[in-house]
Amino acid sequence: MEIRSTTDQDLDVFVDTLHVAFGHFREAPTGGGGLWWSALEMDRGLLAVTPDGRPVGTAAAYSFELTLPGETIVPAAGVSAVGVLPSHRRQGVLSAMMRHQLTELRARGEFLSVLLATEAVIYRRFGYGPATYTQTLTVQRHRAALALPRAPGTATGSVEVMRRSECGGILEDVYDRYRRAQPGALSRPRSWWAVGAGQPPISPAPRYVAVHRDTDGVPDGYASYSLGEHGTLTVDETIATDDAVSTALARFLLGHDLVTRVVLKHCPPDHPLRWQLADFRAGEVGGDTDWLWVRLLDVPRALTARGWFTDGELVLDVEDPFLGEHGRYLLTVRDGKADCVPTDREPDLSLDVSDLGSVYLGGTAPSTLVRAGHIRAHHPDAATLADALFRAERPPHCLHWF
């Protein structure tokens, strides 16, 4: 079997192979665009091919930017479109593609890789760990009253309802401002907006958009939504540059007439809406799941790239079984910056590279993984120190689907 890079001429073969791998059929193209594969970067794709030339596996990567704690923005490879034909599973095809891909990413000088896992049991063995989480909030309209706030912070401005087809530029601009300040957020390349790739509101699927504008008329938030059967208003995503704007958009959505319930998708676990409802139990949490998985390809570069909020030293003993690597590093943090160098000192924590990926953005406490038996703490204070060091200024969250 050969693992080879793809070119633009391989697009149809790549897409057809991937559809077969998942048992799907290709959608018919429409004049409005919106096909997810229209954003594929074919110079970053891989095909697994049998000796007689049959494609049996695919893997792709997108060129994203990832916002780290401290509002540091770095390049990250977004792994996607990974599939193996049912006739060739459990024969080492996936492992071969993943190893080939990680080697290629390193050769490109990349030190972080991210993905969305179709199945949670697959990617940890390749060194990825869940790093951000998301959930759905459902509010019955008759229980949607908001409590009177006890602290200042009410947004001033206005909400305008627009059609998705009217406000693509607004969505692109507001999202870009939001993602630059949100740990765990990915960029949405301009090419995605141009071809309508992905899910709403990037795709041209019919949607209404509640656009919030500040007192100067500048858009600073939006909510993309649709009304379905039985009076359900479903919100694809809410993007706001601050909490006051988020509250104003929530107030608009929950006050929509001819609606029996409001379903807000992709809410961060710390979303304040449940606390803002007069009836705390009116906010029903569902769909609580992992979202962005992170894989470190160069531990020192990754740890020195992000911002830090507590001074301290920590010795990390990191195993990377998939790539057959092992390293022990002294992480020293002073005044928000980190230094990370190899060391022979005794470790404070021993962990798998996938666990390091989980704690990297600050969304998973190292002490949680110690309690779960994933990370070994070599002295009683190690987990507490690691929790303080790896925390972010706010919980990481990722909305982007790829």
UniProtKB/TrEMBL annotation:
N-acetyltransferase domain span: 1-149
One MF term in the entry's GO annotations: aminoglycoside N-acetyltransferase activity
Active site annotation, chain numbering: 123, 402
Keyword terms: Acyltransferase, Transferase
CDD domains: NAT_SF
GO terms of biological process kind: aminoglycoside antibiotic catabolic process
Entry similarity comment: Belongs to the acetyltransferase Eis family.
Protein name per its UniProtKB record: Putative acetyltransferase
Organism of derivation: Saccharothrix ecbatanensis
Organism taxonomic ancestry: Bacteria, Bacillati, Actinomycetota, Actinomycetes, Pseudonocardiales
